Amino acid sequence: MREIQQLLQSNKYEEALIKLNTLKPSREELGPYYYLQAVTNSALNNNDEAIKFIDKAIEIDDSIPEMYHIKGNLNLKFGNLEGVVDCFQKVLLLEERKDEPDFEIIFNTTAKLYENKYFLADYDGAIFYAEKMLQLQNEFPEYINLGEDFEDKLRILKSFSIKNKKFVPEKSSTNVSSPYLPNSNFEEFFEEVVGSKISKNKSDNKIFGYSNDEIRANILEYGSTNFDLPYKNISVHEKTLLYCYFNMRKHIFTFYHILNTLKKSKYGNYFSSKLFQSDKVCINDIGCGPITGAIAYSLFCQKTENAIPEISYVGIDKSKAMLQQAKLFLQANISFFNPQSEFQFSTDWEHIPRKGFNFHEFYMGEKSTQTFFPQLHIFSYLFANLNEKETISLAKNIDEYFTGWSDREIVVVFQNSTDVGKNKMYEIFKENSKALRLVYNGNDTIKYHNNRQNSDKFIPSEEKVCYEILVNRTAYENMLNQENVPIKYKSKSTNDNDDLPF
């Protein structure tokens, strides 16, 4: 064991791990052995192994603060902030019970608890540990200096905590009276990339030889099909075209409606200044399909703000065929996007950048660290197609992301069917993602026409949409404080009855 400790002190982790794996420890040596395994694997970023061994070490002896310190840092890597808090609370308790406690460990642990409670939006908990830090500063002024503005920050935090307790998310239940209409640019685009291709294969009220009901039920499986598998004589490309023909327009209308609702909400000035009037916006679209959300976003900004922000877009969809369809849409003759926008695609949500990436370089190709651009995350009709394991994995992934970029303002838009059964995975997602705060929800019925020319001949279609708006801590605080960025573009005036059809 001593030789392994020497190797660890020399940062020779690979050698230490090799020697550890050759040892056959006695029962008395198991505790130190598991501890050294945890330390070594953690240093090598073998985090699953590290957490396994530190749990075994704690089972043998749960009175050693260093073990909980290691487990706390591992939980931080996993994005499990509640686990971080539990571990550091244990460290603090064990250290305070010592006959000669180390005040420096106590202070550093208290500071970590303060930070993590604050990030989890447990403001009362953050206040408790902030006051403890002030108490330690009074006891050890020669060692601890919290800064002159710390008490001012604490007063603001207390004020915000009171405000936080009174905050109730806004709720909408709207039946839109006037139908949404596509504009001529969108109609031309849709005809070029979808409509014309469907028309060539349409005869006798059938497409590719199938009725509309057959397509929805058997080929598309109501949107839940595997788009990377052909269906009989239908290729994967034709499958995605059928999806776009039957679903894309109504999903654009529902997302457009959600953005319009946000603009008119109590915090409409905040959402407008951050999402619609910013120079640049970063969009992570999970379950992006054929970039439906990005198109709706650009159409909305163009209609309401007379300008479209530069978008840095990461589209993630498990279907390669759907991503190929999205890329074909981007190559169409009509573009809805700011020409400086950049698009990236992936089939794996691990592609979302974590802490350690240069945020601006990844998103914007810039090295600037002075301006933080807002972010929009889109979960559109995603969770009905995920199982519980995938949902928990996504929640963990998103929490890791928010942990890494906690100083950025992030707005999350979830939309899905109003079918309760199709929203079960979303509820599991929220239970496992601790970094988000609900600020708005709705269960609305909207009306829309797919074709402007025939809008006076046919009754509008209807779609029910369930949606929620969630934000991270930084966005939440600024939203409540109404700290808006300068408005660059003059926004078109709206009133309560203006549904802004595009």
Question: Which key features would you list for this structure?
Answer:
502 residues, alpha/beta, Serine Threonine Protein Phosphatase 5, Tetratricopeptide repeat, Rossmann fold, 2 domains, 8-stranded mixed beta sheet, two-stranded antiparallel sheet, 19 helices, 51% helix, globular, disordered C terminus
Q: Give start-end ranges of low-pLDDT stretches.
A: 355-360, 366-371, 484-500
Span between termini: 71 Å
Per CATH, the superfamily of the largest domain is Vaccinia Virus protein VP39
Q: In what range is the share of β-strand residues? A: 5-15%
Largest sheet: 8 strands, mixed
The CATH architecture of the largest domain can be named as 3-Layer(aba) Sandwich
Helix content: 40-55%
SSE pattern? HHHHHHHHHEHEEHHHEHEHEHEHEHEEH
Coarse structural class: alpha/beta
Radius of gyration: 27 Å
The CATH topology assignment of the largest domain is Rossmann fold
Count of domains: 2
Short synopsis of the structure:
It contains 19 helices and 10 strands. With 502 residues, it is α/β, with parallel strands linked by helices. The protein has 2 domains: 165 residues, Tetratricopeptide repeat domain (Serine Threonine Protein Phosphatase 5, Tetratricopeptide repeat); 234 residues, 3-Layer(aba) Sandwich (Rossmann fold).
